[in-house]
């Protein structure tokens, strides 16, 4: 089977009205699923998505379930309306940050109903972590992307770690455990060869930027992200603990109440944000999925692993945004119509993109088979 990766997107891509085109184009499939989402959540998330206001949709407790549900809705439309069978067409799945929830649903590790419950409870816990930090310590919290030149990224990361008192790459959530929240900052994402995201207290991030510019010789472009919480930072530790407890529980799906909420193995491999490698066991999956709340998303390492070691040549992004797949295209040298023999990077975030993407997958499948045969 030609290797194909599926990439759901992350928080920050939500927008008012993002489900309307799907409801209009595929009402038979979309309407019942949206009604199911509202029923499972116990409130009209669909109304918030359709009508806003944007400030309500952007709130963590609404944004995370909305994005995850939107990704799965698109996948269900592909399955029911176009006969797309993920286990037959896809070898590995991964998702950026919040996208890991949809990736695990697609990979067969957790049901959509259970995942929606998990993402809602985790989002509520994350929002509470932020409220508590603001109430107890003051300040403003969020995330800031830093964009630099590719050959400057590693020195920039070293300069950030030096300022924060860290001596090695990766997650630093443990070393920040005794630091007051207002001082806590972490590299939340390593997204590509020229982009990282900082998470934590905004004033502390500004101080850090002043330091790396004055003393580190760096001048990265800083972009504030659409996030009201500092995800993947030590401030999210209570949310990680709640997530860990929930993952030890049983399924909420009727008829599966005596089964674990997590299944293993899935129907295809899924790459962890924390390790940048596929999950290896049920216990490891539960541990890493919970730790993802506080640890660095190793997106660049994940893409390099699939591109360079697993030789993935075909990538399809499914979800309301294009951030994840754009980062993939930048790393593997393929964007949109720019393809190699048997390869490409495609995205489905609007109904009009489906047929074009499925046609491209069909056309490249035979070429990809030939390439794999040539490689032996």
Automatic annotation (TrEMBL):
<dbReference type="InterPro" id="IPR016035">
    <property type="entry name" value="Acyl_Trfase/lysoPLipase"/>
</dbReference>
<dbReference type="GO" id="GO:0006633">
    <property type="term" value="P:fatty acid biosynthetic process"/>
</dbReference>
<dbReference type="InterPro" id="IPR050858">
    <property type="entry name" value="Mal-CoA-ACP_Trans/PKS_FabD"/>
</dbReference>
<dbReference type="InterPro" id="IPR016036">
    <property type="entry name" value="Malonyl_transacylase_ACP-bd"/>
</dbReference>
<dbReference type="InterPro" id="IPR001227">
    <property type="entry name" value="Ac_transferase_dom_sf"/>
</dbReference>
<protein>
    <recommendedName>
        <fullName>[acyl-carrier-protein] S-malonyltransferase</fullName>
        <ecNumber>2.3.1.39</ecNumber>
    </recommendedName>
</protein>
<dbReference type="Pfam" id="PF00698">
    <property type="entry name" value="Acyl_transf_1"/>
</dbReference>
<keyword id="KW-0012">Acyltransferase</keyword>
<feature type="domain" description="Malonyl-CoA:ACP transacylase (MAT)">
    <location>
        <begin position="11"/>
        <end position="353"/>
    </location>
</feature>
<keyword id="KW-0808">Transferase</keyword>
<dbReference type="GO" id="GO:0005739">
    <property type="term" value="C:mitochondrion"/>
</dbReference>
<dbReference type="GO" id="GO:0004314">
    <property type="term" value="F:[acyl-carrier-protein] S-malonyltransferase activity"/>
</dbReference>
<dbReference type="InterPro" id="IPR014043">
    <property type="entry name" value="Acyl_transferase_dom"/>
</dbReference>
């Amino acid at each position: 089977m030609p290797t194909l990766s599926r990439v759901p997107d992350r928080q920050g891509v939500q927008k008012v009205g993002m489900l309307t085109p799907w409801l209009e184009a595929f009402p038979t499939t979309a309407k019942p699923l949206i009604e199911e989402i509202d029923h499972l959540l116990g409130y009209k998330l669909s109304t918030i998505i359709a009508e806003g206001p944007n400030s309500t949709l952007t709130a963590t407790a609404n944004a995370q379930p909305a994005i995850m549900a939107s990704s799965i809705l698109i996948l269900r439309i592909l399955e029911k309306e176009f006969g797309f069978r993920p286990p037959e067409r896809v070898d590995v799945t991964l998702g950026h940050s919040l996208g890991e929830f949809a990736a695990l649903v697609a990979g067969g590790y957790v049901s959509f109903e259970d995942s929606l419950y998990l993402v809602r409870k985790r989002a509520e816990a994350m929002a509470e972590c932020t409220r508590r930090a603001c109430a107890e310590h003051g300040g403003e919290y969020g995330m800031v992307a830093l964009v630099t030149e590719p050959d400057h990224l590693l020195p920039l990361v070293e300069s950030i770690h030096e300022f924060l008192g860290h001596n090695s790459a990766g997650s630093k959530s443990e070393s920040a455990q005794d630091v007051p929240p207002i001082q806590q900052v972490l590299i939340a994402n390593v997204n590509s060869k020229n982009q990282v995201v900082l998470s934590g207290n905004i004033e502390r991030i500004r101080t850090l930027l002043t330091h790396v510019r004055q003393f580190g010789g760096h001048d990265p472009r800083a972009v504030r992200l659409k996030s009201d919480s500092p995800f993947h930072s030590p401030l999210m530790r209570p949310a990680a603990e709640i997530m860990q407890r929930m993952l030890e529980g049983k399924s909420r799906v009727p008829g599966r109440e005596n089964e674990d909420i997590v299944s293993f193995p899935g129907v295809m491999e899924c790459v962890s944000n924390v390790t940048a490698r596929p999950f290896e066991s049920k216990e490891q999956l539960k541990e890493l999925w919970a730790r993802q709340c506080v640890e660095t998303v190793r997106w660049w390492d994940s893409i390099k692993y699939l591109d360079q070691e697993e030789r993935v040549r075909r990538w399809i992004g499914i979800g309301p945004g294009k951030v994840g797949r754009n980062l993939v295209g930048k790393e593997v040298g393929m964007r949109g119509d720019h393809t190699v023999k048997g390869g490409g990077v495609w995205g489905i975030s609007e109904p009009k993109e489906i047929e074009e993407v499925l046609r491209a997958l069909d056309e490249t499948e035979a070429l990809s088979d030939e390439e794999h045969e040539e490689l032996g």
